Amino acid sequence: MLQESIAITAMVNNTAPPSQPNASTERPSTDSQDYWNETLKEFKAMAPAYDWSPEIQGIILSSLNYGSFLAPIPSGYVAGIFGAKYVVGAGLFISSFLTLFIPLAANAGVALLIVLRIVQGIAQVMVLTGQYSIWVKWAPPLERSQLTTIAGSGSMLGSFIVLLVGGLLCQTIGWPYVFYIFGGIGCACCLLWFPLICDDPVNHPFISAGEKRYIVCSLAQQDCSPSWSLPIRAMIKSLPLWAILVSYFCEYWLFYTIMAYTPTYISSVLQANLRDSGILSALPFVVGCICIILGGLLADFLLSRKILRLITIRKLFTAIGVLLPSVILVSLPWVRSSHSMTMTFLVLSSAISSFCESGALVNFLDIAPRYTGFLKGLLQVFAHIAGAISPTAAGFFISQDSEFGWRNVFLLSAAVNISGLVFYLIFGRADVQDWAKEQIFTHL
What we know:
Layout: H1 2-11, H2 31-46, H3 54-62, H4 72-82, H5 84-99, H6 102-108, H7 110-138, H8 144-172, H9 176-196, H10 209-218, H11 232-237, H12 239-269, H13 274-304, H14 310-331, H15 339-353, H16 364-367, H17 372-400, H18 402-427
């Protein structure tokens, strides 16, 4: 999604800052205006630009999630039964391969572009969902927060690289090369994935016997063996599971809004050119990457030293990761006149919200390790529903009023996020649920 969020500032004619004129309009000349106009001429000469309204842009950015809620449950279920290696690898290859064709689809029309992104989103779900079936067999309980957050930080690091390099590519050689280069890198990664990854430590050819023994023994007390049967009715009645589901929806509402619109916000509100927009948009993600890892280390430290109970850690980290970023983002429209304060707020929001990765977002591993693949798929359904709605809603608000639209976007995101937090604090649990301890043959 990040390729589109940075590239769309170059793909669309009307994303230039309101105070900046088109090349044919005469205005008092300043250095920044001349630089922006020169940049605009350069990338227009190298790549096409489209007359997409803010509503259309919101739909395009959201379309990655339109079909995604269909794939997580079957992907997680299949990964849990047959292993995640091939599910994740196939999803990575399909998504990367389709990325190469996004410029062609954009030239063919919005409808084809949206269809391609829907299919691409389904492939990405296979990657996001399947990887947790690997962690349930690889991550010792006392290191689970640390290992999953280190892995999760990779997405933030990737976002940083895409935004940092993407803005430069858009300005120098044209926005299509953002998709060609990163799509090609994704395809190359598949060549490393299949020979190096194993579903469980027992079959891994490279790790030491001591490490293999440690992992297997640490997981021996945990019933994480997959099962064909699913306790559907028990899951439906489980309030702790619903607490996590609601949290996923609410937290990913804000996440998808920020991920999709950070480059647009910086470009339009701060009046940054393509290169600077990419660099500034990347800063919150690199800080978030670091803080995700630190949050995981802190959570495991508090648990291993028995300073706090597991449920206390999950709820505390979730509360910090929701409340403070919500307050910060709601305050953004009031500091838009200061570029430094705006960037500081965006970076702080990303840094603090990363605590959720050691809170509610990993809580499903605690309550039902046996059904990790299926539950991750179910959680991704709620996350992608939020991702399908939130950028579209943001595009609608911004199209109505460019100044107050951003304020409404942040207010709505904060309200959704905080409501999810309240529900999680009331009903969230961290102990293995009864329905996840033994096989329960239940039919709908």
